[in-house]
Amino acid sequence: MTRELKQEYTLRITQANKTQLITILYEMALLYVDEAETALAAEVGRAGLKNAVRRIQGCMCELMDSLHMEYEIAQNLLQLYLYVNREVAKAALHGDAESLKHARPILEKLLKAYKQIETQDTTGPVMG
pTM here? Predict the structure, then answer.
């Protein structure tokens, strides 16, 4: 992630409500999937791939931590997050681009859904 993107995400995070924070995490995870795919395609070694995978898994951990498990949908989301985690771990372990291709559509669909929810969330920023 470039320095400019980091600054942009930092600004967005400071101004985001709860739903927007989730959306940002999906966007960041997808950005790191791009980085992982680039690292695999360039065959520059596993360091770039492992860094990207670690960041994707960090996003997944944050998303898992945000779940309210008393709701049934949270159970379903948890299963999706765990699946994405497994697939990106396979990508890092085996240098397998196919595993990243399994994770991407899930993240894209969840991002799309949360973008729709975001339009309905009128709460203020989490950070005061």
Answer: 0.91
The residue to which tokens 């931590």 are assigned = 65
Cβ 24 vs Cβ 8: under 8 Å: no
Is 121 within 8 Å of 23 (Cβ atoms)? no
> Phi/psi of residue 75, each to 5°?
-60, -40
pLDDT by residue (tens digit) across 52-98?
999 999 999 999 999 999 999 999 999 999 999 999 999 999 888 89
Three-state secondary structure of 104-122: HHHHHHHHHHHHHHHCCCC
Q: How far apart are CA 95 and CA 48, in angstroms?
A: 11
Task: Return mean pLDDT, the chain.
Answer: 92
Assign residue 127 a region (left: φ > 0; alpha: ψ between -120 and 50; beta: otherwise). Answer: beta
Residue 60 contacts residue 87 (beta carbons within 8 Å): no
**How is residue 127 written in tokens?**
């950070």
Q: Read off the amino acid at residue 126.
A: V
Backbone torsions φ then ψ of 121, nearest 5 degrees: -90, 110
Q: Two tokens at 32? A: 């790191």
